[in-house]
Amino acid sequence: MRELFIRFARHPFITLELFVASFFANGLGLASTLYIILLLNRYVSHGVDATLFTLTAGVCLAALFEYGFRRIRSRLAATMGAKRNWELITGTFDIITKGKIKALDAIPQRARQELIKGVNSIEDAYKPSNLTALFDLPFSLLFVWVLFLLSPLLSVIAICFMILMLLLASLSQYRLRSRIKRLTSISIQGNGIFAAASQASDTLRLFDRSDLLVKRWKSNAKQFLNQRRLISDNQDALQNQTKMLQTFLSIAIYAVGAKLVVQGELNVGLLIGANILAARALGPVGRFAQLNDAFISASQAMERIRLLENVEIEKDSGIALQSYQGDLTVRDLAFQYPGMSQPLFESLNFEMKPGSVLVVTGANGTGKTTLVRLLAGLLDPDRGQILADGVELRQLSPAWWRSNLTLLPQESGFLPATIGENIMAANPQLETEGLNYVIQESGLAEIIDKTPQGLDTPLTATAGLFSVGHRKRIALARALATGGKLVLFDDPVEGLDAKGCQIIYTLLLNLSRAGHTIIVFTQDPNIIKSATRVLDLNVKPVPTIHNREDKIM
Question: How does DSSP assign 186-240, residue by residue?
Fold first, then answer.
């Protein structure tokens, strides 16, 4: 319910208006009960048509006003939730896209995928019809109070049934909470299995001879359907219990009320009216009970979203130097991922002057890609400094710093956009001449010429159109689009044929001649032997720098 109070607290005037509208809507709802009582006690007893006309016109007018107030409530409730829903949807995505990588990495990928679904659960729980049902709940006491004026004994019976309904709702909520949490956990596991099946179709067909993934999927599906069945059974039981209580309440009101009629304490008109009032009093409690599963799902979704509260957002401000000359200094750098027994490296020191070249080598898992991410400002070191032209990286604007990087990552990840849009995203100011240059330098021209849509080809639909090597060339063109002074190439020749490798070798030579500062992360012997310095990350925990004349191979 914390989320509910947040919404009320942020819109106190709308909350007050909702309460006032609910007061009038429920107050006008009494008109139908009074209509029946007066119709039976006055018109039926005396048969005056003018009385029938007056009562009928009055109750119809009251019904129209009640409808109007209820519509006003719904619109007010929608207004209250709209801004909050927008904040949750956009805020969650902002943290996923702008949060610091190390903190996000602590949240499992599958759990992150469930966050947007969770936002949808929250929006569904706090939709206008549910909020207005909550505002009807306190006005159950209004109907009980009017019933008390007719018969204190019948009002006590109604209160007892309301308390019993609330107890059943609490018990149902207790059962649902653990079951919905379990269902979410099973769903997250299922998402991972389904994603694996979608992304590794060749592997499944070639190597999954024991149908390992199929067995896991069937086991997950069995658990999921069983949990859904338990939740559905719980909801169905509560619905039937609600209907049963409503029936028993009516029986109790009529049974006790009939005796009161015989004793002369009530008449038939008042008895029928009392039954209607009791049903109107129990109705909001029953509707509230039916909202349990929605509010529990929303509450658990908020718990998952609150995991993001500890994720620090990357700053969008900082120093932007007039120009970057290419000087880079690493001092006493240390980094260790959570859960690792020892750091990837520590006391790492090296200095790059404009135009110099460094090759970073090491076996898989020694920290080559991590060092790339540190130099790009995606990760913060546990200790030490990274300085660009003498300025600490943490003081620089991340956007400005990355615009000065010619960065080719190991994994060729792309935005869900066209080839041209992906290249231009790295440098929106890139002109046609510059675009043509990077396409030619990366060897991408001949590939684009063979695609039906050229630069307008969507990368989201090219799984079978582009090979790993072709995608590497697109990533290379994107890297060159910035014209950054510092070149960071992570395993640049991985997945490339001889022609693609030659493009990389030639490009590195040209960039070096043009005065770019170059750091290449690779185990390719052709690149290593041409380097003036080599940083060997195989040496732990303090990596060593080898001069070219040293024998490192």
Answer: HHHHHHHHHHHHHH-HHHHHHH-TT-HHHHHHHHHHHHHHHHHHHHHHHHHHHHH
The two most distant CA atoms of the chain are separated, in Å, by 119
Instruction: For residue 28, give the H/E element and its range.
Output: helix 12-38
CA separation (Å) from 302 to 13, 103, 119, 310, 424? 25, 18, 8, 14, 37
Closest C-alpha among 123, 53, 132 to residue 87:
123
Helices 292-305 and 2-10 meet at what angle, rounded to 10? 80
For residue 158, give both structure tokens.
Answer: 């109604």
Examine the pLDDT at 406 and tell me if it is beyond 90: yes
Nearest Cα residue to 386 out of 479, 317, 486 = 486
User: Alpha-carbon distance 154 to 159, whole Å?
Assistant: 9
Lowest mean pLDDT among 246-250, 316-320, 478-482, 511-515: 316-320
DSSP conformation class of 257: H
Crossing angle of helices 109-125 and 292-305, rounded to 10°? 140
pLDDT of 461 reads 47
Which residues, 6+ apart, have CB-to-CB distance to 448 below 8 Å?
419, 439, 454, 455, 457
Cα end-to-end distance, the chain, whole Å: 64
Helix or strand or coil: residue 388? strand
User: CA separation (Å) from 298 to 91, 109, 264, 292?
Assistant: 16, 20, 51, 10
Return d(Cα 487, Cα 519) in angstroms, integer. Answer: 6
SS3 content of the chain, % helix, strand, coil (to 5): 65, 10, 25
Which amino acid is present at 263? Q
- Cβ burial of 294 (10 Å; 0-12, 13-18, 19+) is middle
Q: CA 379 to CA 101: how far, in whole Å?
A: 6
| pLDDT tens figures, 127-177 | 888 889 889 999 999 999 999 999 999 999 999 999 999 998 888 888 888
Q: Which amino acid is at 338?
A: P
Q: Is 457 strand, coil or helix? A: coil
Q: How far apart are CA 21 and CA 134, in angstroms?
A: 13
517 alpha-carbon distance from chain centroid: 39
pLDDT in tens, 361-385: 988 888 999 999 999 998 899 999 9
Estimate to the nearest angstrom the gap between the alpha carbon of 334 and the chain centroid: 32
**Would you say residue 551 has pLDDT above 80?**
no
Q: Is 100 helix (H, G, I), strand (E, B) or coil?
A: coil
Pairwise CA distance, residues 113 & 404, whole Å: 32
State both tokens at 277.
Answer: 């009032």
What one-letter code names the amino acid at 398? P
